[in-house]
Design brief:
With 247 residues, chain B is mainly alpha-helical. Chain B contains eleven helices and no strands. The longest helix of chain B has 31 residues. Chain B is elongated. The C terminus of chain C is likely disordered. Classes of the chains: A mainly alpha (249), B mainly alpha (247), C mainly alpha (71). Chains in contact: A-B, A-C. Chain A: It is a multi-pass membrane protein. Chain A: It holds the Pfam family Cytochrom_C_asm.
């Protein structure tokens, strides 16, 4: 157990191993997203109620799923960092946060746009939209807190504590927003309660979700690798790497 | 083997003696609580600030909207809750600030008692001087917003329960930002999203009370949130204070 | 194919103003992050190589010891 954890926590080991996997992550992720987009945009049948506007689902749902998974991953990394002091975990959490925030924003943006043709308004205080908005604020808070500290370790620990507090709070926020929503609005609009999707609509969505996950993983790994170099520019193996010109895309 | 056991018991007796000589958990807690309350009561003007802020914000709304009592009574639960929440938020920055600046906090964390217990004492002192007065003053402002009389008790009890949760959760944010020079704005960015469940349940319960709906489950949920934050928040705040002192 | 012609595809049966911006913003964010991370890596490695060359000219000082300890 322990040797594995320490090996995993070694930046050099991680850099070498991830260098082998990264091209596949980039390649398969890009391929899946291209296929899923084309399929979803051009080949999936239009929805019988919403027409072609439903095609927004192919970016809206994957972005929302990745945004939430990203927070779970950051929470796990924060826990590992706080308990075992593995700095690599902190680097990964820091690398994932901006993309998680961007995906949250993307889900909100596409949801707002989707709202115009379906609900006739840019914004409704729907339970899902509202809790995503709060998730965005939490992401921004974590990123701002990390940046506010003068010392890197201080910022890392503060961000980790806040991430863990946030992950305990998120289910409560979600639940309370749902309760608030049912209290205030008689009939809730729901994007997700639609008649069971036919396979021809559902399959491209699945491909998109997988593609988003893979690209999210690729970006996070790449950003973590960059952070390793940034923190350790004089390590011998980093020097050798730079001299060798093996950029290991 | 026997020898080992002997030294072990001897050591244990030693540590026992040391522990006996030290003040216990309860003493540490009450001493911190009394000290903090005394400090807060010495600065009476600061003590009144959250209350004045609360009253002022509530006064602004009829001015900004309309002096229409049906409109005001409709929004009164949410308005009173938002105003109370902001008043608590404003007072949070001072929760650890002075002790951080003069080094008391460092001594506090070096104390033999678990840091979480001492932090809890500071949070309780904060609640006694902000949340409690706010809750006690709320019926007065409720009358001014023509909130129905039968919901005053519920307004007060939700504020009592909720403001304690606000103090506890807010302490984490205050502890995280106490070492930063301009932590105030950041503090609100960190804490406000975490405050939303308390606001939703607090204001929602008062609204249900106005409508005369059964309330026990919602009060129980607010109690559950208080219990959860009571368990977790002091320790998270203590960990955050430690890193603020390191960094 | 759910559309008769390419023009139909771009028009999205009148929903073009909703579908395309949503796709552009979300996929654009992903692609931007991907590109920036790759460019950033090249820049960092160039920077490290430049550091190495600079220090090679002044061999007396070793910065390896000052490196942050990683675990």
């Amino acid at each position: 157990m322990w040797p594995i954890i320490h090996k995993l926590g070694s930046p050099k080991w991680f850099y070498t191993m991830s260098g082998r996997w990264l091209p596949f992550l980039w390649g398969i992720g890009a391929l899946l997203i291209t296929v899923g987009s084309l399929w979803g945009l051009a080949f999936a049948p239009p929805d019988y109620q919403q027409g072609d506007s439903f095609r927004i689902i192919y970016v809206h749902v994957p972005a929302a799923i990745v945004a939430q998974s990203c927070f779970a991953m950051m929470a796990l990394c924060s826990l590992i960092f706080l308990v075992w002091r593995i700095k690599l975990a902190d680097m990964a959490a820091g690398a994932a946060a901006p993309l998680g925030a961007a995906m949250t924003f993307g889900a909100l943006f596409s949801g707002a746009i989707w709202g115009v043709p379906t609900w006739g308004t840019w914004w409704v205080w729907d339970a899902r939209l509202t809790s995503m908005l709060l998730l965005l604020f939490i992401y921004l808070g974590i990123m701002a807190l990390r940046g506010a500290f003068a010392s890197r370790d201080g910022g890392a620990r503060a961000a980790a504590i806040l991430t863990l507090v946030g992950v305990i709070n998120l289910p409560i926020i979600k639940y309370s927003v749902v309760w608030w929503n049912t209290l205030h609005q008689g009939a809730t609009f729901s994007i997700t309660e639609k008649p069971a999707m036919p396979m021809s609509m559902w399959l491209p969505l699945l491909i998109m979700v997988l593609g988003f996950y893979l690209l999210f993983a690729a970006v996070t790994v790449a950003r973590t690798r960059n952070e390793i170099i940034r923190r350790q520019p004089s390590a011998r193996w980093v020097r050798a790497l730079a001299k060798g010109g093996r950029h290991g895309l | 083997m026997v020898r080992g056991a002997c030294t072990l018991t001897a050591e244990r007796a030693d540590t026992d003696r040391v522990l006996d000589a030290l003040p216990g958990l309860w003493q540490g807690f009450s001493a911190t609580l009394i000290r903090d309350c005394r400090l807060r009561f010495r600065r009476r003007s600061e003590l009144a600030n959250p209350l004045i802020f609360f009253a002022l914000v509530v006064t602004l709304f009829p001015l900004g909207l309309a002096p229409d009592s049906t409109l005001l009574s409709g929004i009164a639960p949410g308005l009173l809750w938002v105003a109370a929440l902001l008043a608590v938020l404003l007072s949070l920055d001072g929760l650890f600030r002075d002790d951080f600046d003069d080094g008391t906090l460092e001594q506090l964390l070096l104390a033999p008692q678990p840091a979480g217990v001492l932090v809890l004492a500071k949070i309780v002192a904060h609640w006694l001087t902000t949340g409690l007065p706010l809750a006690l003053a709320s019926p007065l402002l409720g009358i001014m917003l023509s909130l129905p009389g039968h919901s005053m008790g519920i307004l007060m009890s939700t504020l009592l329960l909720g403001s304690a949760t606000l103090s506890l959760v807010g302490a984490i944010g205050a502890a995280l930002t106490v070492g930063l020079r301009r932590g105030g704005v950041l503090l609100s960015l960190l804490i406000l999203p975490l405050y939303t469940p308390v606001l939703i349940f607090g204001a929602g319960t008062v609204r249900l009370a106005v409508e005369g709906a059964p309330l026990a489950p919602w009060l129980a949920l607010m109690g559950a949130m208080l219990a959860l934050s009571l368990l977790a928040a002091p320790w998270a705040a203590a960990a955050a204070l430690k890193l603020s002192l390191d960094g | 194919m759910a559309f008769d012609s390419l023009a139909d595809f771009w028009a999205m049966n009148g929903y073009a103003a909703y579908v395309w911006p949503a796709f552009i913003v979300v996929l654009g964010a992903l692609v931007t992050f991907a590109l920036v991370s790759v460019i950033e890596q090249r820049r960092l490695l160039r920077h490290v190589a430049a550091l190495e060359r600079r220090e090679a000219r002044r061999p007396a000082r070793s910065t390896t010891a000052t490196d942050e300890e990683m675990s």
